[in-house]
């Protein structure tokens, strides 16, 4: 890839708007679309999303778990989704949240960031909670192949705080330490680093005090729409870091399906609401 992920993301969000839409084909949504809870339903759901979104939004984030639950045939659908998103012009983030050590992490890196791997999108999500250094094989390979990594930092699930807001010997929270480690990876990158963080748009309390000033990378912010956050909440949560925020909306957009035009219109309305906040 001739441009880094950070550069491609900056370019595409400038033209299409800062929005990531998830493809989350869980059983409830398949049923709501009148589709069977099997591989045929998964494929129809996912490819309808690609048709609606690939040419209009900047980033699309397929949730790997909902493909993996159908075994090899589900993985094959995910591979097609990634190829079709690439052809359609959208960037893809594979939401796999991988995290391990040593040769196992290196194998995950080959799968999700390796050149020529059918599971390698433009970026992948990763969990740093075996120690940030454990992600080095993935971060190094992604940098080599021009891909991005979004590292979990402060998630909005109620269980997350017991780990992410715990304090180390230096007084920093775990979440802040992750942000600082990502910032070190992004130092000097222009126009934007390719290692991002995941911070929920619905985080409250102490989680909102994280210092993002040196991050120099994108912030994937799930929670817009059905999870309760609005575009207007982004300013309060992220403050001066707002220009680097990539809000994610899944259920609210996907609820407009299965009509392709309705899906696309729902996504574009969300883009407009986010742009209004950023203006």
TrEMBL record:
Pfam families: OMPdecase (PF00215). This is Orotidine 5'-phosphate decarboxylase. Its EC number is 4.1.1.23. SUPFAM superfamilies: Ribulose-phoshate binding barrel. It catalyses: orotidine 5'-phosphate + H(+) = UMP + CO2. One of its GO terms (molecular function) is orotidine-5'-phosphate decarboxylase activity. Belongs to the OMP decarboxylase family. Type 2 subfamily. HAMAP family: OMPdecase_type2. SMART domains: OMPdecase. The active site is at residue 97. Keywords: Decarboxylase, Lyase, Pyrimidine biosynthesis. It comes from Spongisporangium articulatum. InterPro entries: Aldolase_TIM (IPR013785), OMPdecase_type-2 (IPR011995), OMPdeCOase_dom (IPR001754), RibuloseP-bd_barrel (IPR011060). PANTHER family: OROTIDINE 5'-PHOSPHATE DECARBOXYLASE. Residues 18-266 form the Orotidine 5'-phosphate decarboxylase domain. Pathway: Pyrimidine metabolism; UMP biosynthesis via de novo pathway; UMP from orotate: step 2/2.
């Amino acid at each position: 890839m001739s441009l880094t992920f950070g550069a491609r993301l900056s370019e595409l969000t400038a033209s299409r708007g800062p929005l990531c839409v998830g493809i989350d084909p869980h059983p409830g949504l398949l049923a709501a679309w009148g589709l069977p809870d099997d591989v045929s339903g998964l494929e129809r759901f996912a490819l309808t999303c690609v048709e609606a979104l690939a040419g209009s939004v900047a980033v699309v984030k397929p949730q790997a778990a909902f493909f993996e639950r159908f075994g090899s045939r589900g993985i094959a659908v995910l591979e097609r989704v990634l190829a079709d998103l690439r052809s359609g012009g959208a960037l893809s983030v594979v939401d796999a949240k991988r995290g391990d050590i040593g040769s196992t992490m290196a194998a995950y890196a080959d799968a999700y960031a390796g050149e020529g791997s059918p599971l390698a999108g433009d970026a992948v999500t990763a969990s740093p909670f075996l120690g940030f250094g454990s992600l080095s094989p993935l971060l190094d390979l992604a940098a080599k192949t021009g891909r991005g990594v979004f590292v979990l930092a402060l998630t909005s699930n109620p269980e997350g705080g017991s780990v992410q807001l715990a304090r180390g010997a230096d007084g920093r929270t775990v979440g802040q330490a992750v942000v600082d480690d990502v910032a070190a990876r992004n130092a000097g990158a222009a126009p934007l680093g390719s290692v991002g963080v995941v911070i929920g748009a619905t985080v409250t309390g102490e989680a909102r005090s994280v210092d993002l000033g040196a991050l120099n990378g994108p912030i994937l912010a799930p929670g817009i729409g059905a999870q309760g956050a609005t575009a207007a909440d982004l300013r309060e949560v992220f403050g001066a870091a707002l220009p680097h925020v990539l809000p994610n909306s899944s259920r609210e957009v996907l609820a407009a399906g299965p009509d392709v035009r309705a899906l696309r219109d729902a996504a574009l309305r969300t883009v407009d609401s986010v742009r209004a906040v950023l203006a």
